[in-house]
Design brief:
The complex is a heterodimer of chains A (about 280) and B (about 350). By secondary structure, chain A is mainly alpha-helical. Chain A is built from 11 helices and 2 strands, in the order H-H-E-E-H-H-H-H-H-H-H-H-H. Chain A has one domain: MetI-like fold. Helices cover about 70% and strands about 0% of the residues of chain A. Chain A has a two-stranded antiparallel ribbon with strand order 1-2. By secondary structure, chain B is an all-alpha fold. The chains are: A mainly alpha (about 280), B mainly alpha (about 350). Chains A and B meet through helix 4, helix 5, helix 9 and helix 11 of A and helix 1, helix 6, helix 7, helix 9 and helix 11 of B.
């Protein structure tokens, strides 16, 4: 981890993530507005403008007179939540499946991996759209959908790592001592497969935030007035010529968060596997 | 590799594709069965009469045992019969024939931008490793991977359509062009008024650029990393030591060896393009498969949703097969290893 923070890209990613996390946690304390305060007199105020009462709207207001900055900082909480839930789901389901496939091999492996091949045959956002279309368009289902499409990635990585680690001598020694399959897999093998999974978790946080924002932009995720960044962008799509800042701000936040996770994930990868360094 | 070997390899790959295609069919089939509550009531609303519900259930085939439903679904799908739209009462395949060319035109255009530009950019950065140009390229490609394309599309519209008024921002054309192939670029040449082709190109530029961003960035990253590893190899040093001109070293020795993994990654990008097309089509009012899917979701037209997802997944699998074959053709080691 220390090595990650010594590279410029890793440090940039970590600083960006820390800033976004700070905004998500303390952001609402920095603004006098509520994220859902509507006031049509304040409609479409440009960034840095002050209303008659002297209140400063740092990033302007939207079509309902709501403060864009306040909505963005509350949206940061939602985006972190989306990333954690989606990646958590993919991790919790994908890792054991991949571990079992890699450890037991043969028919179990074929069965699980053919299932993953089927999931991978669908373009991920399309599969997520299909899941949401069936179970209903809301933020919870969008998080689940994004998690489901991420499962095969974790499953494949875990399987590949388990295939290598299970042949190591210390595993053979533990097996010779009579360790059960469960003990071997979860105590001896999986802990040594964590490095690539951590890298993938960081990269998948970015793609999950992106996919969930895409679903919300299409009206298939969080619903207004929830200040999810994709939903805000979807709303602003209706009046983008009138208030371009309502388009620019939430999109820039999605971009920064995804960039931060990608920078961090990339550096983590380089730190764990210097040969992958470019 | 000779023709017979390639044919054997293609046969093996095709056989391997069958369980995946069956899995795709099963998953798409289960979509409607997974709808919470009664799908028919979901479609018709709470005030539907039992007769109406029975009619829709019969139309969806839900009144049969599940196994029979699945076999019927598969046999119809294989024959190209994907049922009728619940809302528009037209065969789904007719609707697909109308919109799929628009999506193909968009995705192929995006790919034609992304692949050559990505390879050139990645190769160029690799040759200047550690320089400012390399840093700029790697930073730009990381930014390209992270950018939400629906946001980028809106920004491009704001700049090039609203601000500069250089390019149109919606639809495939403003002119009346008789549909012959339904590929607008071709139809505009075949029967459109003068200037129709350029008009169609202008409508295509912004959506294609938007959709190409992420694949371009990924291909550039991959090309750079592959080129760097090949540039370090002994045969490149030998070629240079022999006094070959740098352009010969790059085009004859480095490119053929570095391009193989890039082709695989580029093939995988087709899946991204199909998914990204939904978002791009929404932003640019592009009447393709993605727009059809979104409309079908809004109308709870389940046969249409199933068909759009099925077409995308099957096309993605077939493109991957083609990429595998291309790879085997270009790199004989692939199939030799499998023949052992």
């Amino acid at each position: 981890m220390r090595k990650t923070l010594t590279t410029p890209s890793g440090l940039t990613g970590a600083v960006l993530l820390a800033l976004l996390l700070f905004l998500a946690v303390f952001g609402p304390l920095l603004t006098p507005f509520d994220f859902n305060d509507q006031n049509l007199d304040r409609q479409f105020l440009a960034p840095l403008s002050r209303f008659q009462d002297g209140a400063l709207h740092l990033l302007g207001t939207d079509n309902l007179g709501r403060d864009v900055f306040t909505r963005l900082v509350v949206g940061a909480r939602i985006s972190f939540l989306v990333g954690v839930v989606a990646v958590g789901l993919a991790f919790v389901v994908g890792v054991p499946l991949g571990a079992v496939a890699g450890y037991f091999g043969k028919r179990v492996d074929s069965f699980i991996m053919r299932g993953m091949d089927v999931l991978l045959a669908f373009p991920s956002i399309l599969l997520a759209i299909a899941v949401v279309a069936i179970f209903g368009a809301n933020l919870r289902n969008a998080m689940i959908a994004v998690g489901v499409v991420t499962i095969p990635v974790f499953c494949r990585i875990t399987r590949a790592s388990v295939l290598t680690v299970r042949e190591r001598e210390y595993v053979t020694a533990a097996r010779a001592q009579g360790a059960s399959h469960g003990r071997l897999l979860f105590l001896y093998i999986l802990p040594n497969c964590l490095e690539p999974l951590l890298v993938q978790a960081s990269l998948s946080m970015g793609t999950s935030v992106l996919d969930a924002a895409g679903l919300s932009f299409l009206g298939l995720g969080a619903k207004p007035p929830t200040p999810e960044w994709g939903t805000m962008l979807g709303d602003a799509f209706l009046y983008y010529q009138r208030a371009p800042w309502c388009v620019a701000a939430p999109g820039a936040m999605i971009f920064l968060m995804v960039l931060a996770f990608n920078l961090f994930g990339d550096s983590l990868q380089d730190a764990f596997d210097p040969r992958s360094g470019k | 590799m000779n023709g017979a070997q390639l044919l054997r390899y293609a046969g093996r790959r095709l056989l391997g594709l069958i369980p995946v295609l069956l899995g795709i069919l099963l998953l798409v089939f289960l979509m409607v069965r997974a709808i919470p509550g009664s799908p028919a009531r979901n479609i018709l609303g709470q005030r539907a009469t039992p007769q109406e519900i029975a009619r829709v259930e019969a139309q969806l085939g839900l009144d049969q045992p599940v196994l029979i439903q699945f076999f019927r679904f598969c046999s119809r799908a294989v024959r190209g019969d994907l049922g009728k739209s619940l809302r528009h009462n037209v065969p789904v395949t007719e609707e697909l024939k109308r919109v799929v060319p628009a999506t193909i035109e968009l995705t192929v255009s995006a790919f034609l931008i992304a692949f050559p530009a990505g390879v050139l950019l990645g190769g160029w950065a690799a040759l200047r490793k550690g320089s400012a140009a390399d840093l700029l390229t790697t930073s730009a490609s990381l930014a390209g991977i992270s950018v939400p394309i629906f946001w980028l599309g809106l920004l491009l519209i704001l700049i090039f359509s609203v601000g500069l008024e250089w390019l149109p921002f919606g639809g495939r054309t403003d002119l009346l062009i008789p549909p012959v192939t339904r590929f607008m670029l071709i139809d505009s040449l075949l029967g459109g008024p003068p200037g129709a082709f350029w008009e169609s190109v202008k409508h295509l530029i912004l959506p294609a650029l938007t959709l190409s961003t992420v694949p371009l960035a990924i291909i550039a990253r991959m090309s750079r990393s592959c080129a760097l590893s090949v540039l370090d190899m002994d045969f490149v040093r030998t070629a240079r030591a022999k006094g070959l001109p740098e352009s010969t070293v790059l085009w004859r020795h480095v490119l053929p060896n570095a391009i193989l993994p890039v082709i695989t990654v580029a093939g995988l990008q087709f899946g991204y393009l199909l998914g990204g097309a939904v978002l791009t089509e929404h932003v640019f009012s592009w009447p393709g498969l993605g727009s059809l899917l979104l409309r079908a979701i809004g109308e709870r037209d389940y046969p249409m949703i199933q068909s759009a997802v099925l077409v995308a997944a099957v096309s993605f699998s077939l493109v991957n097969l083609v990429v595998d074959l291309l790879y085997a053709k270009l790199d004989p080691r692939v199939s030799l290893e499998e023949n052992r």
